[in-house]
Amino acid sequence: MFEVFALTDAPIGDAPAGFGQFLLLGLVLGSLYALIALGYTMVYGIIELINFAHGDLFMLGSFWALQVATWVAVTTTSNNSTSAIIGTVLLMLLLTPICCAALNMAADRVIYKPLRHSPKLTVIVSAIGVSFIFINCGLFWKGATPVKFPDLVPDTNLLPNTGLTLTWKDAMVVGVTVPTMIALTLFVKFTPLGKAMRATAQNPTAAQLMGINVDRVIAATFAIGGALAGVASVIYGLYIKAVDYQMGFQNGLYAFTAAVLGGIGNIPGAVLGGLVIGVVGELGKAYLGSKWSEALIFAILIVILLFRPAGLLGARTREKV
Amino acid sequence: MNLLRYWVLVLFTLLAAYPFLPFAEANRGEQFTVLFVYAILALGLNVVLGYTGLLHLGIAAFFGIGAYTVGILTVPFFPFQQSFLVAALAATILSALVGVASTAPILRLRGDYLALVTLGFGLITLYAIRNLDAITEGTKGMNPIEAGPIPGVPESTDLSGLKLYSGWGVRWYKYPYLYFITLCVLGLIMLFLRNLERSRLGRAWVALREDELAASCMGLNPARLKLAAIAIGAGLAGLAGAFYAMSLRTTGNPQSYDFTLSMIMVCCVILGGLGNRNGVLLGVFLLMGFDRIITNILDNMIQEQIGTGGPTYQKVSGWKLMIFGLVLILMMRFRPEGLLPEARQKRELHPEEATGEASAKT
Fold first, then answer.
1. Given an 8 Å threshold on Cβ–Cβ distance, is A115 in contact with B332?
2. Would you give per-residue pLDDT tens digits along chain A (321 residues)?
3. Which of A114, A126, A128 minimises the CB distance to B263?
4. Considering CB atoms only, which of A2, A121, A311 is closest to B258?
5. Distance separating alpha carbons of residues B51 and B219, to the nearest angstrom
6. What is the pTM of this model?
């Protein structure tokens, strides 16, 4: 039912592709997966919910970014000045996360919050419901066929004469995702809200007894996760240049896989998982053919979970009984 | 007599009588057959998810394995040319074996990790089906599947040629016996599950679901019980897949066995009532019936009114996911135990009512 534009359909460039090239591209895509995976892992870390709607939130984010670009009427590189293009990209990067954060918070407030003390499965099914609604909204918004996303970032190679291809697009992905992830890590480590988040993740009841407003912390987590999905959606749109209403499914699935691979609930784990998935996907594509790279990703996931049942970095999170 | 208490029996009787009714339509019969197939699939998932409490997100893989086993054993493309009986049996057994083999190594994973690995397994199976086009004929699907119900006799003609009930004035579709066979199999599975629930195995599953630690302390072997659940659940899913391929005359596009199907099946089971076979039946008939039949009828009605080719939001099928989503969310909010809850689940989800009843009794 879902025929999707996966991230791995990205153009490889014109340089003769070798191992280093695929590694590079894998790391670029992986950092994008990592950004989406963070939204899964943060929400899971706090309320143990597999947020199936996260991928579709990402999809709605990219539609919103497209809408923003249409409003300011900067949709091509040809007849716009560089400053207008940079301004548009920054505007998208500002407005989309706000919108996604608000939507994610609203979903939490209206749908997940009343189910806070329900069994896990109840909340997961609600999340599936939210996901269906988001997909349907996307369908109404932009129709059933893929829509072109403004091609605002040039494909010029930044590493000529090295045998590697690193375009402005690749650089943009890394240039946005890495600082975002560093900022997030610092935020969770050093700010009071970040500390409250970690406390809530460890033990909500104890956190509440210590005077932490758990509901507000959860809302903030949804907001941050949503904002990260928003950032990722803008980057994705600019990178792949086409968006459609079903793309949230597969990209969400990869990101979720990345989160679990790293150890769900664990922030560095999600980043590591995203990078692993990106690299494995690209190398699989290079050496097994693109048909099998998806299967390879999930095969690697299963193998890793067989030997490390809590994910790569998951040892630190303890199972709650 | 309270007919509502026996609604399942009444339903089965009505469905068995339907083809003989004057307003019976051929394509409705085909749609109903597919509905029965999904009911078998959901009942299989219910063994794993409802009775044993394992969140399996890859049940569609077994459905696909069943369908493709039948495909390989019956299409003219391959030299096997088995009868449908043999093929369906092989599909069931193979699915059960794959279920056990794929689950045995991952039993030590807990909760959501298990869910993800089953999801991954489902996707790998789907990709394998899609990519091994030398065997599965890729996205074209394997067809035609034309094994007869009688061993050794390739089916070529329809039963209407036999004038079995031409006197009834039935405008009936080409392969009417399949409707009855699927319905019969569904009925038999319901009986089988009814007995299974009360058996030692069924009670052990429930104990395991409620508290694995306590159950293993009482001498139950969780690993073996989980494998038994997977074997039966996957076997039923494989059987459903066999009937699916049989009723469509093709395995169809591999996309019919994707993650969406697994997820919708989970929704059917939970909507109807986790662990309650009647509830699951109701859940499937409501969700899949809406998906496959009611939207079609409504869309046709709308098309008659305003003509074809309108925008998506003018069709009921365009609103399908929205309606699914709202139903799921509202159900989880106000009736999380499902439409027809199993007694234990209900008590767990509404503790205040249960204790009230208990104190009223004493």
1. yes
2. 344 444 444 444 444 567 888 888 899 999 999 999 998 899 988 888 889 999 999 999 999 999 998 888 777 777 778 888 888 889 999 999 999 999 999 999 999 999 988 888 889 889 999 999 999 999 999 888 898 888 888 888 777 777 777 888 888 898 888 898 889 989 999 999 999 999 998 888 999 999 999 999 999 999 999 999 999 999 999 998 899 998 998 888 899 889 988 888 888 889 999 999 999 999 988 888 888 888 898 888 888 888 888 888 876 445 444
3. A128
4. A2
5. 18
6. 0.87
CA A249/CA B197 separation, integer angstroms: 36
Closest partner CB to B110 (pick from A136, A140, A319): A319
Does A294 contact B127 at a Cβ distance shorter than 8 Å? yes
What SS3 state is found at B83?
A: coil
CB-based contact (8 Å) between B332 and chain A? yes
Instruction: Tell the residue number behind the tokens 């990078």, with chain if given.
Output: A275
CB atoms within 10 A of CB A178: 14
Structure-token pair, residue B35: 């509905």
Paired tokens of A131: 């996901």
From the CA of A41, how many Å to the nearest CA of chain B? 12
Judging contacts by C-beta atoms under 8 Å, the chain A residues touching residue B121 are 298, 302
Residues of B whose CB is below 8 A from A115: 332-333, 336
What is the number of CB-based contacts under 8 A between chain A and chain B?
Answer: 138
Q: Which two tokens mark B330? A: 């509202």
